[in-house]
Amino acid sequence: MLIYTPDSYSKSSPSGKRALFLDRDGVINTEINYLYKIEDFEFIDGIFDLCRTAVEHNYRVVVVTNQSGIARGYYSETDLEKLTKWMMREFAGHGIEISKVYACPHLINADLESYRRDCHARKPNPGMLLQAKEDFNLDLSKCIFIGDKKRDMEAGLRAGIGSLILFDASTSVPEELDLKVSIVSNLNQAKEKLFNK
User: Fold this and answer.
1) Which sign does the torsion angle of CA 137, 140, 141, 143 carry?
2) 181-184 and 163-167 as β-strands: parallel, antiparallel, unpaired?
3) Superfamily of domain 2-195
4) Helix, strand, or coil (residue 133)
5) Residues forming the active site
6) Domain ranges across the chain
7) Which end of the chain is more exposed for a tag (fewer CB within 10 A), N or C?
8) % of the chain at pLDDT higher than 70
9) Burial class (CB within 10 angstroms; exposed 0-12, middle 13-18, buried 19+) of 73
10) What is the C-alpha separation between 27 and 168, in angstroms, rounded?
11) Could you tell me which residues are beta bridge partners of residue 152?
């Protein structure tokens, strides 16, 4: 698991037991297969407003992302670090601190042998969420996870996340998840559903 932290922590950073977990591709930025270049990164409408509102409600912002492009040899850990640090600075420029970014570079059938493993961190496994719980002493039952894939919701269920939001208007929720997951078609809907704003 790769972990990225802010260049410096804000004194006003939320200190409670709640976090807004975000998948990256398809939630923070427009989905582009194996994105690693800053010039290809496009923020999704509403992401900064959603995160600012979460911080106002004393949620810290945490990103959990599968990055198998590393295991496939499409880009390097250095490429991912450069993009991630840039993304965190962009959030900071909008007054939002990302507490940490957790990324899993592994894949069970990876092209690169050094990344070939069935990793507990790779969603739908809950490892990144559980690591964040330990790092920040979170009560996961009071946390939120917004993702755009079934595997995000499965990871959230396995970790015991209290509120699960599927950001994907084109996908129906699998039957085994439908009682636990809310669907939204944009991030403003997510903000209204979670914070009545």
Assistant:
1) positive
2) parallel
3) HAD superfamily/HAD-like (3.40.50.1000)
4) helix
5) 23, 25
6) 2-195
7) C
8) 91
9) exposed
10) 9
11) none
